[in-house]
Amino acid sequence: MDIAIIIIIIILLVIVIAIPLFTRRREKKLIWKNEKPIQRYMDLIDEFGNPNILNKSMAIWNKDVAPYNEIILKDEEIPHCCPEPHYDFLYSSISVKMNPLQKLVILAISKSVWYDELKQELWARCHFMGANVATLVLATRILQLDDDDLDALINSKLNDASVLVSEDVDNQPTLQDLYKTLIMSTMANKDLTEEKAMQNYDSLTDELVTNLANLNQSNGKPGPVECDTDDEEACNNLFATYIDDLEISAN
Fold first, then answer.
1. Model confidence, pTM
2. What HEC string does 157-209 produce?
């Protein structure tokens, strides 16, 4: 038998064997219970490459995903009504320091925002990266406010968030107005092209990078906190510690 024919036969056999194996491997990656995170999975691969960890319940990107520490896609669909009804399943984290008053305001952005005080890590959860970067940009803007502007925002009960907007605005935005506006700026619709939404997403990502650099320069690099063995009160009565930190009088 001609050597060329033998080589062709071997190549065909390799292809026949490899295709089912590759298909099974791909199917295994996508066999989750919930359809929406499955649909989002390929978008994340396109942007960040293959996940560093992949199992039956989540995919995790935790290397070369700056400005984020981690991006986690979970096999879940958590109903969330604000700013519009949707399902949460995509998590993103950044490292920042914050004091109790700043945390109070930032946690008021959304029920899908939380802060790990021990790791000094802020998390945002939504259903696409545009919403997460918008949320974290808003949080880092709050962290950069001086005391007077933060007090003004709090005294307005978050109904005047104009201190968080660099340009002049016709209407006085609430914190929730601004939150929704930033998120919607990254979503293509009949009034916003895909190209413009992507430009807005890139712009917010660049702003997040800049904001984090500014915060690190002014506040020092965040990271896991060390134990203060002399501060027994912090361990015995966290509530009292928080009240003292917020400087709220019992009277």
1. 0.82
2. CCCCCHHHCCCCCCCCCCHHHHHHHHHHCCCCECCECHHHHHHHHHHHHHHHH
